[in-house]
Specification:
The chain is α/β, with parallel strands linked by helices and 226 residues long. It contains eight helices and seven strands, in the order αβαβαβαβαβαβαβα. Helix 1 crosses helix 2 and helix 5 runs parallel beside helix 6. The longest helix has 14 residues. The protein is elongated. 44% of the residues are buried.
């Protein structure tokens, strides 16, 4: 476990300069500071300290926060989500391959209902199931800012897919939805197909690695192409 002094050192180093060349960056880079803490094993304590660090510095220039594979659980997710409720700077949050689960996803859903700045949220591989997916779907019905949403490599299943499909009928902001490898079958993906049919804003939907037939895959491709 990373101790408090180590966490303080990690945070100071991360905020001292931009991350190295290996840090993933979007093709169109927004102006501002990019902070990478990936694979630093911060845990919940580190995530809470990170929030305090951001608040102390008033987060005036951080537009990209990369905290993948940091052993963050529910408490850390809740602290980060609470901070983001009134954050007006951060555009991209990558918190993939942690352990936030459904409860952490619910916290981020509550954040998305009121946040007016975040453009990209990556929740890959966070042990999110149907309960978390439902909360996030409800949030997408009211959020008017998020354009890229990654929830691949979780366990939302058909029920979670159906909830997301309902939000796609309402949401007019998302350009990309990544739901790959989520144990979704034909039933759930059929609902997704219905959801994007009348949505002219979804340009990319990633569905590989699910339990779907070629027929359903073809339906999604045709709808996207049209």
């Amino acid at each position: 476990m990373t101790n408090t002094s180590d966490i303080a050192m990690i945070l100071e180093k991360a905020f001292a300069s931009d991350p190295g060349k290996d840090t993933p960056r979007p093709s169109s880079r927004p102006r501002g500071r990019y902070v990478s803490l990936c694979e630093n094993k911060l845990g919940d304590t580190g995530a809470i300290d990170l929030v305090a660090h951001l608040n102390l510095k008033k987060n005036q220039d951080v537009v990209y926060l990369y905290i993948g594979s940091c052993n963050i659980g529910v408490e850390g997710a809740e602290a980060l989500a609470e901070m983001l409720k009134d954050n007006e700077t951060l555009l991209i949050l990558e918190i993939h391959y942690n352990f936030i689960g459904d409860e952490g996803a619910i916290a981020f859903a509550e954040m998305l209902k009121v946040n007016t700045t975040l453009k990209t949220l990556n929740l890959y591989g966070n042990k999110i199931g149907g309960k978390g997916a439902k909360a996030l779907a409800k949030a997408l019905e009211v959020n008017k800012t998020l354009t890229h949403f990654y929830i691949g490599c979780n366990n939302i299943g058909d029920i979670g897919a159906e909830d997301l499909a309902k939000s796609l009928k309402v949401n007019r902001t998302l350009n990309l939805l990544d739901i790959h490898s989520n144990k979704i079958g034909d039933k759930g993906m059929e609902k997704i197909a219905e959801g994007i049919k009348g949505n002219l804003h979804i340009f990319t939907i990633k569905i590989s690695g699910n339990r779907i037939s070629e027929n359903i895959q073809d339906q999604i491709i045709i709808i996207q192409n049209n």
